[in-house]
Amino acid sequence: MAQTSTPSPVTPASLAIPRVDTHLQKFSQAGTLTLTALAFIFQLPLLVAIGAVVLALSALVPALGPFRLVYRGVLAPTHILRPRIVEDDPAPHRFAQGVGAVFLIAASLALYVAQAPAVGWTLDLIVFVLSTLNFTVGFCAGCFVYYHLGRLGLLPRVRYAGGFHWRGV
């Protein structure tokens, strides 16, 4: 007779532990750096605007984030990428995406409305550099800012013990 394993009990404490999928984060970072790089290389302001919408959606309504939808709908089911869930607060990561969205919105306005290409492409490159830094060495500048703003009482404090962690590669 085969034994069936019973799922571990779900307790309120286990539900309160915030978690993130690091492979989804890496995929999002790769997508952001690719969009911003291609926009700059080929001088395509439309890609800057698309990047702004993608990051804004990801920050404001994470379930509708385009990178998340591709990851969950294509990459995870086909095992191209497998989820790697770790204890971490998702709020700093959403904050970082929101800051990236603000920079790309400002870049789009500079490129389309203000006719200030130097400002627009500089803002695009800032997002490119910061997403590349996060993707390659695991340092999230937006998360770092979020953590310190939380310590100052300007944003909610992170919801996991130990404060800011630089995970590295």
Keywords:
globular, 169 residues, mainly alpha, two-stranded antiparallel ribbon, 7 helices, single chain, 4% strand, disordered N terminus
Structural commentary:
With 169 residues, the chain is mainly α. The chain has one domain. The chain is 63% helix and 4% strand. The protein has seven helices and two strands; from the N terminus they run H-E-H-H-H-E-H-H-H. Strands 1-2 form a two-stranded antiparallel sheet. Helix 2 runs antiparallel to helix 6 and helix 3 (45-60) packs antiparallel against helix 5. The radius of gyration is 18 Å and the shape is globular. The model is unreliable at 1-8 (pLDDT under 50).
Proportion in helices: 55-70%
Shape category: globular
Overall pLDDT level: 87
**Elements, N to C (H/E):** HEHHHEHHH
Radius of gyration: 18 Å
Oligomer: single chain
Sheet/helix structural class = mainly alpha
Count of helical regions:
7
- What fraction of the residues are assigned to beta strands by DSSP? under 5%
For the secondary structure, the number of strands is 2
